[in-house]
Design goal:
heterodimer, A: 252 residues, alpha/beta, six-stranded mixed β-sheet, four-stranded antiparallel β-sheet, 9 helices, globular, B: 303 residues, mainly alpha, three-stranded antiparallel β-sheet
Amino acid sequence: MIELKNVFKSFGNKIVLDNISVKFERGKTNLIIGQSGSGKTVLLKSIIGLYEIDRGDIFYSDINFTRLNFNQKKEIRKQIGMLFQGGALFDSISVEENIRFPLDMFTNMTMEEKRERVNFCLKCVRLENVNHLYPAELSGGMKKRVAIARAIALNTKYLFCDEPNSGLDPMTSLVIDNLIKEITEEFNITTIVNTHDMNSVMEVGDKVVFIYEGKKMWEGTKDEIFHADNRYLNDFVFASPLSKRIKSMANG
Amino acid sequence: MLIVQKHSLLIPLSFDSKTGCEYRYIKNTYQMFSTNIQKELTRYLIPLSKISGIMLPKGLFYHLGQYFILMSKVFAQPEKHKIYYKQFVKEIENLGISSIGIVAIISTFMGAVITIQTAYNTENPLLPSYLIGVAARDSILLEFSSTMVALILAGKVGSSIASELGTMRITEQIDALEMMGVNSSGYLILPKILAAMFFNPFLNLVSMTVGIFGGWLVGTWVGVVTTQQYLFGIRYAFNAYYITYSIIKTIIFAFIITSVSAYYGYNVEGGSIEVGRSSTRAVVYSCVVILMFNLILTQLLLS
């Protein structure tokens, strides 16, 4: 479980996160949605400590992450897996070495055990025979899947995904969404996904948090979105004619 | 009220606690600041950059501070020595072994040019021909193999380090490392610094050997010196300390090249244009710092 209490973050005079308080449950796929520039990525990077917040508290289970020193934060980070927007695979090493990297760095496993773990992670994301390929030889969807495999290599407790569907076609996006949901449920981890893809919201959104201009405007489940009376949320979610039609159908 | 001219030099001199005035020495005249000391101190560096017409003080101190903060992280305790050692070996190949070719080619030609130029500048019957060998040896040992090779490597290795780290930064690979709990600066930069400091002295020795060989080859070929005269000159009044001096300089220059370039690459913000700019900055500032330290080290080691 991850909990944010009154989180503020600004860059110079610009307030990017304005008093955000929210709880992300374990074993659920939590989505942060909002327009581009609304503060989603800053919120995600603040939760994982890549940005220092100005005020507020961030709790990982019962541990106040914001009060930890650098080395204590490093220990928490070993339990975090992150899927970056572009995958962020290390392009000078192979797929196997990418997934093995956290194992090499933080475990004393034998090479045989590491290989087994790599193959297990690749199987989880439904990839085979790609061990010796380099990131440049992979498609966009495959890169994301390898990045997920790397993120779960160290028995992750928390999984963060920054726009996992960006640059992917709808079919591949669906595969990635379902993969994230399956991994979340199978390993009972806390997953936070940052997206503005409404297909993802409808597919995997156990809990949805809507951010508008740095403020939390709404939170609920994917089913509650249809009946929400928040103007900003409705403008965002039902921006296209197709989604407007779906909403009117849903409301009878 | 402060009246100053462009490019004037300000040196804090004294402070009068009764009047709250600070006196400074400016271009041979004393002038008085009418502001209180607290206000003055906070404003001290920034107006200085405006006054001098260049951004040197503010930018210099900012970058120096950031550079030392980065270096403190780079030299922090490694997570796993074995992984760092593997990276170190990899960097020796990337930064060192791959540079042997360019160092050898440039050293050969520079040795040849030094020999020919010395020969044409000493066309005096009173000056013995073996002096060509002496001049070539001393030029190569004292200056060329350390400083010139360092400047060349600043171009080759420095731009490579800055663009590699810059690309890793903009593609979030450095963030990915940080996320895993890895000290990204230590993991990425320390092996590069150590590899260059370890291997560049070998490049220095290669440069010395090949440079002197190039001088002999071309000198005898164009007929400005004979083999016997050249070899006599090479051995004449030889001071082994010159090699030590050259290697000390090379090790320090290796640190400058890798750390300055890594600083500019690691702190890239933006996109591919910024990566290119950081690469250029890395080379330019590495060269400037090398030349400054060359002067300091020459004074320290040869005086």
